[in-house]
Each structure stands twice: as structure tokens, then as C-alpha cells.
Write a structure and sequence with these properties.
transmembrane helix; binds 2-acetamido-2-deoxy-beta-D-glucopyranose; signal; about 10% helix; Integrin alpha FG-GAP repeat containing 1; six-stranded antiparallel beta sheet; seven-stranded antiparallel beta sheet; globular; transmembrane; mainly beta
């Protein structure tokens, strides 16, 4: 009987593991509405489910709200502008009422200039002025997003203060901002306070990167991490690896047509670019990044820990350099096996033949998204080929089933906690700037750190998620420490950072940093995500209970039978004796 039970469990396990790899779930998610340009993620209606912001026909924004029934995303909210083309969508709470507003940038129909108009919708719309570059972060540390940009009135970058909606000069930089830029708002010096990272042009017209660190002084200070890059068009993404420090990943082309591509890594304190991927050849085909002029988005890596091993993987769009096809590829973060990357221990390996991902021709954007809010990152790909100029949306479910664990962390704005205006739950306002780090012991007993910045980039379809999923690898231990830091105002001395201990893996942690300046009263709510392993354990437990109950029942029944027999015999004997 025991074997039969075990067999059943094995069968169940086998069934659960059968669907390894990627699975096309587009129809279940969108029904017949799977087209448009996915522009941003955010929880628009505060129901703790991430909604999708999709652009259609250039001037229409649809918000697909997450729903319990198929199709799981339905277009419920619609905004449209009268003239021009929407070039960016950045959801966020721009006035501090803990409700999500939507910022749009628009451009005239025929792209006559690089100038962008900025509009914020909060029920009513409001036009805020003209900009050249823009980027969203909380400059003054009040956790209300501010708009950073160069206006048509001055060369110096300006800040549009969120609550105030007035322009102020921002930084004392002499460099011109580079377009397309890869500005970011993320902690670079491990003090849990977001720093500013800018892409600028040097006096010799080369792309360079500047970091502006929030030092305990009255202004943001520029540090020496200004490294120029001599190759052509670049963009970048941030990643943090096993040591918990933010690193700079730079996908680059050596020539204008991207015949030779590479991905480099650098970090503050490291004075060179180290290649983490140079080999773009698969069989007879040489692949390469797609130059910005041929693609609506700059060369970008979208980062996410696909296999939850604690090392972030990436998605990239590559083009057949001798043909015309372009496809999305998964780059897995693996131990370094080449002399060139030895000093940083890690490199990328390309999955050339990942089924269902390689079925999508003419891919334009590929990014990670947790479709079923189960902590496992799935993949969304946009591809050309839908009618008009709209893209087709493909969603691929990640059926990865290793015994790996994760923790999903969301840091809210903390502008209110129970006393929010008009009794709304403060959930779901995309919050740029928080920094999250964990330390734990891995399966081999080594100390392991991991970290991530929440919403560090916003422009050029950065498509960052409003939460972070941190992979923990195969160790099912409690997370020893989880630290969360938020931006602080310039001039404030104490760091705004709080620590939580013994976090259960496979859980979702919602951090409410309220009030901002008293980290010890911040609260964290823990939601458990029952994974398959937990479910299996439960089923196994119930199975064992039923089994034991059955044995007890049988034994009990046999004993009762024996008892009865004995009684009958006794009665018989008694009768016999009495005779
Ligand atoms: C995924 O499914 C949708 C709807 O069934 C289909 O239109 C699409 O072509 C499929 N994509 C891939 C890559 O198979
Ligand atoms: C903003 O709203 C006004 C009416 O309040 C409307 O006339 C205008 O066209 C709107 N602007 C955009 C960009 O939708
Ligand atoms: C900048 O743009 C605003 C809004 O369109 C306009 O009113 C202003 O005249 C422009 N300034 C310059 C210097 O072009
Ligand atoms: C708003 O702007 C005004 C002047 O433009 C300034 O005096 C005031 O301090 C600002 N308020 C905040 C909260 O930044
Ligand atoms: C992890 O972080 C802790 C605390 O910041 C630090 O002491 C330790 O050296 C880090 N471990 C690794 C492997 O980098
Ligand atoms: C790349 O393009 C060349 C030339 O059109 C073609 O021969 C080759 O098969 C293509 N490679 C792939 C993987 O599609
Ligand atoms: C190893 O590095 C060399 C250059 O240092 C490069 O040419 C080669 O393609 C790399 N090999 C792999 C497998 O990445």
C-alpha cells in the first residue's frame, strides 16, 4: 500500500515537471486583445495585482487590469490624446495622494524635433512643458516622483518637483545629456540611498557615465566614476550579483551597424570594462544587437532571475547580421569559463534554441513579468507583424520547476499608512528608488548576498517591474537578513534603512516605510505564496494522515472483530457452563 501511495506521488511529481520550458499562454491572458506596445507595469487599481499599460495606434493608452477570470488581462481604462504620438508612459503618484497618476510624453506626429511634451493625467490632464530628455526619480527624497530633464529654456538639467510641479535647476553639471540616455536612480555605493547615474557626452563628444552620490552634504556630489566608452551606441542595465553590489552592464556594438557586439560589466571601483559575453555566433549565423535607428527602443538588456539561482539573467533582442530576422534570446548568468571574465567569476550564456521563444519572429522587445503573481518570472515579447503599426504581444509562461526559492519584495511610498486620504489602500503606486539587499547562507554553507534596486529606470520603455523578485537558489533556509533602504533628502545625515530577520522563503514582502524618517516604525506585511513544493508537501501530509487513519481504522475493526468473537465465545462458554 505504501508503494502504491509513493507511486501516486511520483506520478503527480512527474506530471508537474512534464511542462518544463516555456509555454505560450497568450490566448489565456489576452484573448483577442494581444496587440499594442507594452509600455509600463503598475498596479493601477490598488488590488495588489500588476496591471499592464499598453499603447495602441500611437495616441491611445489602454490599461489592462488584472482579473481573476480568463482572459486574465482586460482593457478597462482608456486614455487618448488629440495630437502627437505617445513616446513614454510612466505610472506613479506625482502629487502624493497615494493614488496612481499617469505621466505621458508625446512627440509631434512626424518627429520633426527631439522635443517631448510631458502630460500628467490625474483624472484631469495637465500639460507640464517641453523637454528634451526626461527621467523620473525622487530627487528631494520625499518619495514623490520628480521629473528630471533638460527643458527648452536652458541647457542645464532641471527638476520638476513632484508635489509642487515647479521647475528647479538640478545639478551643476557642464556635460550635455546624451540621447538615448540610460539614467538611473539606484544605490551605487552600498549605503542604501539611491544615487544618480547619468549618461552624458564628454567635451570630445564621447559617451560617458557620471555618478552623482548623495553624500551627507547639502548637495549631490559628483564622484570620480566617470568612464568614457568609445564604441558606438550603447545602453545599459544594472544588475547585482552574489556580492550584493550594483554593477553596470553595458551591451555595446563596435561599429554603427552592430556587426560585432559584446556585453561588458563594470562597477564603481573597477577601472575597466570586463567582457561577459563576446561570442554571438551560433552555428553559421552571427547575431548582433539591433542599432537604435532600426528599432524603436535602444539596445537594452532586461534583467530578471529566470531560474531563481540568485544570479540575474537577461533578455536581449538580437538580429541575424547577414539576414533580416530578429529574435529574443535568454542569456543565462553562469560561472565564468573564459580567461577574459575570470576576475568577476560570472558570464552570460545564450540559449540559442529555447522553444517557443525562438518561434517569435521579428521580436522588438522582450522583458520579464510575473504573470500569475507566483514569484516565478515569465516572459513577454513584442513582435512586429500585427496589422497597422501595432506590435503583437506574446506571453510565455516559465515552467521552470527546480527546488529553488525566491522572495518578492515591494516597497510602497509610505506617504500614509492607515490614515490615507479618502480611505484608499496605499498599495500600488510605483515607487522609484528603494534598494533591497539580503544575506543568507547558500546550499554549500557560504554566505551569499543579493540585492536589487526598485524601479531604477523609467524612460525608453525600460519596462521595469514595480517589485523585485530575488532568487535564493536551492537553500530553503530562512532569509537571515533583509535590508530595505529608501532615498533620503539632501542634507539629512542618518540613513533610512531597516532590517528584517528570518523571512520565510517563497513569500511576498510588502514594506510600508511610514514615517520615512523613523525606520524602526516601518512595517512589513508577509504574504506566503504556496509553491508547488509546499502544495506537494501538503498533499503528501494529508496522504500520510489518510493512510495512518486507514491503518488505525482497519486495526480497530480487526480488534473489534476479535473482541466480538471473544465475547461470543465467552457467552457460549457461559451458556455451556450453565448447562
Ligand atoms: C501563441 O498563441 C497565440 C494564440 O493562440 C498565437 O496567435 C501565437 O502565434 C502563439 N505564439 C507562438 C510563439 O506560438
Ligand atoms: C486635456 O483636457 C482638455 C479639456 O479639459 C482638452 O481640451 C485637451 O485636449 C486635453 N489634452 C490632451 C492632451 O488630451
Ligand atoms: C518652451 O516651450 C514652452 C511651451 O511650449 C513655450 O511656451 C516657450 O516659449 C518655449 N521656450 C523657448 C525658449 O522656446
Ligand atoms: C514650492 O515652490 C515654491 C516656489 O516655487 C517654494 O517656495 C516652495 O518651498 C516649494 N515647496 C516645496 C514643498 O518644494
Ligand atoms: C555580504 O554583505 C555583508 C554585509 O554588508 C558583508 O559583510 C559581506 O562581506 C558580504 N558578503 C559577500 C560575499 O560579499
Ligand atoms: C541568417 O541569415 C542568412 C542570410 O539570409 C541565412 O542564410 C541564415 O539561415 C539566417 N540564420 C538564421 C538562424 O535564421
Ligand atoms: C573567450 O574570450 C576571448 C577573448 O578574450 C573571446 O575571443 C572568446 O570568444 C571567448 N570565448 C567565449 C566562449 O566566450
Amino acid at each position: 500500500m505504501g508503494r502504491c501511495y509513493l507511486l501516486g506521488l511520483c506520478l503527480l511529481l512527474g506530471l508537474l515537471r512534464a511542462g518544463r520550458g516555456l509555454q505560450n499562454v497568450t490566448a489565456q491572458l489576452f484573448g483577442a486583445e494581444a496587440f499594442g506596445t507594452l509600455a509600463a507595469f503598475g498596479d493601477f487599481n490598488s488590488d495588489k495585482q500588476t496591471d499592464l499599460f499598453v499603447l495602441r495606434g500611437g495616441n491611445e493608452l489602454l490599461i489592462f487590469l488584472a482579473d481573476q477570470k480568463e482572459p486574465y488581462f482586460k482593457p478597462k481604462v482608456k486614455l487618448s490624446i488629440n495630437q502627437g504620438v505617445i513616446t513614454s508612459v510612466v505610472p506613479g503618484d506625482y502629487d502624493g495622494d497615494s493614488q496612481m497618476d499617469v505621466l505621458l510624453t508625446t512627440q509631434p506626429q512626424n518627429h520633426v524635433t527631439d522635443e517631448l511634451s510631458v502630460i500628467i493625467f490625474w483624472g484631469r490632464n495637465q500639460t507640464l512643458g517641453k523637454l528634451l530628455v526626461f527621467y523620473i526619480f525622487s530627487f528631494n527624497g520625499d518619495l514623490i516622483p520628480d521629473v528630471f530633464g533638460v527643458t527648452n529654456e536652458s541647457d542645464r538639467p532641471q527638476i520638476l518637483i513632484g508635489r509642487n510641479l515647479s521647475w528647479h535647476p538640478a545639478l551643476d553639471t557642464k556635460s550635455k545629456m546624451y540621447i538615448p540616455h540610460s539614467h538611473a536612480f539606484i544605490d551605487l555605493n552600498r549605503d542604501f540611498t539611491a544615487d544618480l547615474f547619468l549618461t552624458t557626452l564628454s567635451s570630445s563628444q564621447q559617451i560617458q557615465f557620471e555618478t552623482w552620490v548623495n553624500k551627507v552634504r547639502n548637495k549631490i556630489q559628483q564622484t570620480s566614476y566617470a568612464k568614457t566608452y568609445t564604441d558606438k551606441v550603447v545602453f545599459f542595465s544594472f544588475l547585482a550579483d552574489g556580492d550584493g553590489q550594483t554593477e553596470h552592464l553595458l551591451p555595446a556594438c563596435a561599429d554603427a551597424t552592430c556587426q560585432k557586439s559584446a556585453i561588458y560589466l563594470s562597477k564603481p571601483g573597477l577601472n575597466q570594462w570586463i567582457p561577459v559575453l563576446q561570442d554571438f555566433r551560433n552555428k553559421d549565423t552571427l547575431w548582433g544587437f539591433v542599432p537604435y535607428k532600426n528599432n524603436p527602443v535602444p539596445i537594452t538588456l532586461h534583467i530578471g532571475d529566470y531560474n531563481m539561482d540568485g544570479y540575474p539573467d537577461a533578455l536581449a533582442i538580437l538580429r541575424n547580421t547577414s539576414g533580416s530576422n530578429q529574435q529574443a534570446f535568454l542569456l543565462e548568468n553562469v560561472p565564468c569559463n573564459n580567461a577574459s571574465c575570470r576576475s568577476i567569476h560570472r558570464m552570460f550564456k545564450v540559449y540559442w534554441e529555447l522553444s517557443d521563444l525562438n518561434q517569435i519572429k521579428d521580436a522588438v522587445v522582450a522583458t520579464f513579468f510575473d504573470i500569475y503573481e507566483d514569484g516565478i518570472l515569465d516572459i513577454i515579447v513584442l513582435s512586429k507583424g500585427y496589422f497597422n503599426s501595432d506590435f503583437a504581444i506574446h506571453t510565455l509562461k516559465n515552467n521552470f520547476e527546480a527546488d529553488a526559492y525566491f522572495v518578492k519584495v515591494i516597497v510602497l511610498s509610505g506617504l500614509c499608512s492607515n490614515d490615507c486620504p479618502s480611505k484608499i489602500t496605499p498599495f500600488g503606486v510605483n515607487q522609484p528608488g528603494p534598494y533591497i539587499m539580503y544575506t543568507t547562507v547558500d546550499a554549500n554553507g557560504y554566505l551569499k548576498n543579493g540585492s536589487a534596486g526598485q524601479l531604477s529606470q523609467s524612460a525608453h520603455f525600460a519596462l521595469q517591474l514595480p517589485y523585485n523578485v530575488l532568487g535564493l537558489g536551492r537553500s530553503a533556509n530562512f532569509l537571515d537578513h533583509l535590508y530595505v533602504g529608501i532615498p533620503r533628502p539632501l542634507g539629512e545625515k542618518s540613513i533610512r534603512k531597516q532590517e528584517w530577520t528570518a523571512i520565510i522563503p517563497n513569500s511576498q514582502l510588502i514594506v510600508i516605510p511610514y514615517p520615512h524618517n523613523v525606520p524602526r516604525s516601518w512595517s512589513a506585511k508577509l504574504y506566503l505564496t504556496p509553491s508547488n513544493i509546499v502544495l506537494l508537501t501538503a498533499i503528501a501530509l494529508i496522504g500520510v494522515c489518510v493512510f495512518i487513519l486507514a491503518i488505525i481504522g482497519i486495526l480497530h475493526w480487526q480488534e473489534k472483530k476479535a473482541d466480538d468473537r471473544e465475547k461470543r465465545q465467552e457467552a457460549h462458554r457461559f451458556h455451556f457452563d450453565a448447562m
